[in-house]
Write a structure and sequence with these properties.
The protein is mostly beta strands. 8% of the residues lie in helices and 33% in strands. The chain has ten helices and 74 strands. Strands 14-15-11-16-18-20-21 form a seven-stranded parallel sheet, sandwiched between helices. Strands 26, 27, 29, 31 and 32 form a five-stranded antiparallel sheet that branches. A hairpin with a 2-residue loop joins β12 and β13. α5 packs parallel to α8 and α6 runs parallel beside α7. It is elongated. The N and C termini lie far apart (114 Å).
């Protein structure tokens, strides 16, 4: 007989498996001549140089069948190594009448790779929560996991031998008492320090009638004897596998196991230690001898025999568990069909390592059912030893042991129930959605990683979780837990599907955080929590008090849930956060997938006295929210690309209704109506990144839209268009320089003509008149590009506007209206976000506020060339936000609102001290500027900040002040970038002091667009000048500051404090100076 060397192919190339047609009743094999009793079959065997034919499963009984497939009718035909190809053999033999079908014979190999033996810890048991599962048995009282009131749970180890006398295995070896001939209750005994078969039982008789003689602990199907003990040290694999299933646990020796005391049946199934040559015979033998679970830590790619699996599953009631495979020959994950793991009625187990890492060496695929630990597995080895191993050979027996442990707890359950309980109670892990070099792992690693505790307790205990946390009866009844409030906290508790009902559930809460005091720490649920359902209490609640000075943010708390009417109780501990917040009620935050990088705007779009919030997103949506966070009718509006351009609002067509105006990366300038319908889509070729500015550029009483573009990598245009999409004469202006920030608009030199100022990536500042001509003295050349838009303000009180712009070298330029430099300030790093202007110290001159990459929030006094006392303040990291100002607490002083990129919001008093409860950090990055306004008309301000996780709206709980300030990006809702407040002009030289308080008439009157009023003050006093409409509603607060004695002129530009152009009508100046007060009637006409 010639022998050939096996290669690592997927099937043997020297043999085929044939199934003899059921109609050939008398078919038999003539052992003497290695042929059959069928002449046609013999002739074909001779023609193909066949060596012999033999029964594949010699122990198969006539009753071992899978439908019409009888396992005793399978035969293996062996050929010489240079015979015909397998395809030819298969085709020729299937042509015979006596052959029903032909199968290729899979090469089955052990699925492990030895590892360095340095690991001592069995991480896998804790990972699958075996330690928690053990608690379900009263071990101290002698109730051991894996035992049953009657009978035993037996796992068949179909492998290459089993060192059954290993000191960590022998106590869990299955003893077949059907062969206990002497009736002493054992079939193995110790003799001279060695374990042997009980001599009183060795009789050469099949005492239990299972066709196996003296099968005391299993069988050796390859050598056809009753001892699966290894014949030499190469037969180690079955011993390694057995320890993973059920090494004796809590015995002070060696290792622990998931099966604890589950019994082990040894089935040697190979005569070659590198392969499992007779695996399917071993499967059948294990089923015939009464194994409940069969572990198969071997296999190959392709082939396999479904009928054997079906027979042990259907006829013998076994659950089969198999290793999914160790990838390809190069040690990389593959997705190929692996058998027997890929066959029906087999639990296929792939492998993960510590930390639930899938390391891309094990086989994956759609037939994998779950994963279990398979790396650095400490288990039993030959010669009473131990070792560390790697492979799905070890994830499979860990799972088989878990299946047996579960079944021992529920012995009356059927196979389907046990399998479903194992597969439905796994833990998902992150690598399940990852990939290996062979492809995506999505859906390729089964239901998750084995969790035996879940599988067990799902049938006994509930599985409770906290579905939601609700705050009730807080002080302002908005459902938000503010600092200083007492609140009732109610839990909605859920119970996962498939678990027992939660009875007598009690929740207790605790915390070590000193921001809150827990006044009532217990909730008792009067009703059961059904499986798959949720419950809450109608009356009972936690009672929690937050302290006045509590910092905003999550307060970590621990909730202990207990269920059950008697011991052992179900108990679980869940970490929750009680959120101390100033969130505006109704605005959901954070929101996954909503990335906002445009600056929000707060404005009264409908003219009904209620504010709305608008902001653009990177997914192309322009959101519009009403009070309570609900979407406005017609919003969101969806553009074709991201919206970084911050929206402006104004009545651009002079029809009495406002419009929303913004640009997009899709190259379109959009105008939307009150209900979100598109009134204009002006398309050009470049990105629109900066905010558009709205202004009456040509004095025709409607507003034009001015915006900049990035057109390609190095060019851009300045546009000015009418509301109908027609270009303003002289526009667009081809600047031929990229612009990522919007324009500023204003009357630079007081000639009653609007000018436009832009800053570019080519280091330049341009001033352009309303006809599109670049003004004399421009462009001004700087040292670096501009990523912050310019701002216009009369800083020196000369009636002309100065230009303020900061570049990426950190230089803040202040230019005169003619392009000459008035002054500058070098911060040393990029200036970003925007520049705002306010009079913070009430000295009658303006400070300039800005941030950037130097991490500082600056307040700079340009006339003094110095920062305001107490400033700058370190924000900790880069800032891309234009600071806003507002009187948040009605103390007559402005607060400063800023943010850094990493998501921290800062609020400071004008002197640099922190406003209560700030700073606070939110989810996501902040890459735009805040907006301030009273959204809900409750007399306090809200702060709206866009983040990469959605819109954050903070409710400031102190009474607002009406002092004019820079409340949003670019200063007003038109996004003009110019100071819309009225400038106080002082004409006294200190020698000519008026003798008494006096108010002159306003001029012109009627007026359009602005009017002036002269005021004489004789003493140092606070001067307050306000404008009211005929209903008594405050329209604008023009001045609120201490002034010296002298002659003062105040100008009103016909706008509200929010930058809205007021309609034609009667208005009133109200002037206070100390105890003096006067009122002047004025008329605005259009």
């Amino acid at each position: 007989m010639l022998f050939f060397q096996l290669t690592f192919s997927e099937t043997f190339n020297d043999r085929i498996r044939v199934y003899i047609d059921n109609s050939f009743k008398s078919f038999d094999v003539e052992i003497s001549d290695n042929l059959s009793n069928n002449d046609k079959l013999n002739n074909l065997m001779v023609r193909h140089d066949a060596e012999r034919i033999e029964q594949w499963l010699p122990n198969a009984r006539p009753t071992d069948r899978d439908g019409e497939i009888y396992l005793n009718r399978y035969y293996i035909i062996y050929f010489q190594p240079k015979s015909s190809s397998l395809d030819i053999l298969k085709k020729d033999f299937e042509s015979l009448d006596c052959v029903d079908h032909v199968e290729l014979v899979t090469v089955n190999r052990p699925t492990y790779t030895p590892n360095d033996p340095y690991w001592n810890a069995q991480y896998g048991l804790e990972l699958i929560q075996a330690d928690l599962a053990y608690d379900l048995w009263n071990i101290d009282a002698g109730d051991f996991p894996g035992t049953m009131e009657s009978g035993e749970m037996v796992v068949g180890i179909v492998d290459n031998s089993l060192e059954w006398d290993h000191p960590d295995l022998v106590n869990n070896i299955w003893q077949n008492l059907g062969e206990d001939a002497d009736g002493d209750g054992v079939v193995i005994v110790q003799s001279g320090g060695n374990w042997i078969f009980d001599p009183g039982d060795v009789n050469g008789i099949d005492d239990d009638g299972d066709n196996y003689v003296d099968n005391f602990i299993g069988w050796d199907v390859s050598f056809n004897d009753n001892d699966p003990m290894p014949v030499n040290n190469q037969y180690d694999h079955g011993t390694n596998v057995a320890g993973c299933v059920s090494a004796s646990t809590n015995n002070g020796t060696g290792i622990a196991s998931v099966g604890w005391s589950v019994k082990l049946m040894g089935i040697n199934s190979t005569d070659d230690p590198g392969f499992v040559t007779d695996g399917y015979s071993g499967i059948l033998a294990a089923g015939q001898m009464g194994a409940d679970v069969i572990n198969l830590s071997w296999g190959g790619f392709g082939g396999g025999n479904q009928s054997v699996i079906n027979t042990v599953y259907n006829n013998y009631g076994c659950i089969v568990v198999a290793s999914a495979g160790n990838g390809d020959d190069n040690g990389n994950t593959n997705f190929d069909m692996h058998s027997p793991s890929g066959l029906n009625n087999v639990i296929s187990v792939s492998a993960i390592g510590p930390g639930d890492n899938f390391s891309c060496w094990a086989t994956a695929g759609p037939t994998v059912d779950l994963c279990a630990p398979g790396e650095s597995i400490r288990t039993t080895d030959l010669n009473n030893g131990y070792g560390n191993f790697l492979g799905t050979s070890f994830s499979s027996p860990i799972t088989a042991g878990a299946v047996a442990l579960l079944w021992s707890k529920f012995p009356n359950a059927d196979q389907e129930w046990v399998i479903d309980r194992i597969l439905s109670n796994t833990d998902e892990f992150s690598d399940m959605t990852g990939s290996c070099n062979a492809g995506s792992l999505e859906g390729m690693l089964g239901t998750g990683r084995l969790n035996i505790n879940k599988a067990l307790t799902a049938g006994i205990f509930p599985s409770l979780y906290i579905s939601d946390v609700n705050y009730l009866n807080d002080s302002d009844d908005d459902g938000v837990f503010n600092p200083g409030e007492q609140v009732k906290v109610k839990l909605i508790v859920g119970n996962e599907e498939g678990w027992a009902d939660g009875e007598n559930v009690i929740a207790t809460i605790s915390t070590e955080d000193e921001r809150i005091a827990i006044l009532d720490d217990t909730i008792e649920f009067s009703n059961n929590i059904p499986t798959g359902g949720t419950a809450f209490t109608l009356i009972d609640h936690f009672l929690i008090q937050s302290f006045d000075n509590a910092a905003l943010g999550d307060v970590p708390c621990t909730v202990h849930l207990q269920a059950g009417n008697e011991e052992p109780y179900y108990e679980t501990t869940i970490e929750i956060d009680i959120n101390i917040s100033l969130d505006q009620s109704g605005f959901e935050f954070p929101i996954s997938g909503v990335v906002l990088k445009s600056s929000p705007i707060i404005a009264d779009l409908y003219g009904n006295g209620l504010k709305e919030v608008f902001v653009g997103s990177d997914n192309g949506d322009l959101f519009g929210f009403m009070v309570g966070g609900n979407d406005l009718t017609g919003f969101p509006f969806t553009a074709e690309d991201k919206i970084r351009s911050s929206p402006a609002i104004g009545d651009v067509d002079n029809d009495g209704s406002n419009e929303v105006v913004f640009g997009s990366h899709d190259g379109t300038l959009y105008i939307l109506s009150l209900v979100g319908s598109q009134e204009l889509a002006y398309l050009q070729s470049g990105y629109i990144v900066g905010s558009p500015a709205l202004v009456d550029l040509d004095s025709d009483e409607d507003m034009e839209i001015v915006f900049t573009t990035q057109d390609g990598s190095n060019s851009g245009l300045l546009y000015a268009i009418h509301h109908d999409g027609e270009n303003v004469t002289g526009f667009p202006v081809d600047i031929n320089e990229k612009m990522l920030v919007g324009p500023a608009v204003g009357d630079l030199e007081g000639d009653e003509l609007v000018d436009i100022v832009i800053a570019t990536w080519e280091d330049k500042i341009y001033a352009v008149d309303n006809t599109g001509m670049i003004k004399s003295g421009f462009p001004y050349s700087s040292t670096n590009r501009f990523n912050s838009p310019p701002t216009l303000a009369d800083l020196d009180g000369d009636g002309d506007l100065e230009i303020i712009a900061g570049n990426d070298s950190g230089i803040l330029h202040v230019l005169n209206h003619d392009g000459t430099e008035m002054t500058s300030f070098d911060t040393g790093d990029d200036i970003r976000g925007g520049i705002s202007v306010s009079d913070l110290d009430d000295d009658g001159s303006y400070e300039v506020l800005f941030t950037g990459y130097d991490d500082l929030l600056h307040i700079w006094k340009p006339l003094d060339g110095a920062e305001l006392e107490g400033w700058p303040i370190d924000l900790g990291t880069n800032s891309l936000s234009e600071p806003a100002t507002a009187d948040l607490d009605n103390d007559g002083d402005l607060e400063i609102i800023g943010a850094n990129k990493s998501g921290t919001i800062f609020v400071y008093h004008h002197d640099g001290t922190s406003f209560p409860h700030f700073p606070t950090t939110v989810s996501g990055n902040i890459e735009s500027s805040p907006a301030v306004g009273d959204i809900d008309n409750d007399g306090d301000y809200e702060i709206a900040i866009a983040t990469t996780m959605g819109l954050k709206v903070i409710d400031i709980k102190t009474e607002l002040g009406s002092k004019i300030s820079w409340k949003l990006h670019r200063g007003n809702i038109y996004r003009s970038g110019s100071l819309s407040m009225t400038l106080l002009s002082v004409k006294s030289d200190g020698n000519d002091i008026p003798g008494k308080f006096n108010i002159g008439s306003n001029y012109p009157n009627p007026f359009n667009p602005s009017t002036n009023i002269d005021i004489e003050t004789s003493t140092i006093n606070r001067l307050i000048v306000s404008v009211y409409d005929v209903t008594g509603r405050l329209v604008n607060a023009l001045i609120n500051e201490n002034v010296q004695p002298g002659y003062h002129t105040v100008t009103w530009n016909g706008q509200s404090q929010h930058g809205e152009i007021m309609p034609t009508g009667i208005y009133f100046f109200q002037i206070h100076s100390g105890d003096e007060m006067g009122i002047k009637k004025i008329m605005l006409i259009k």
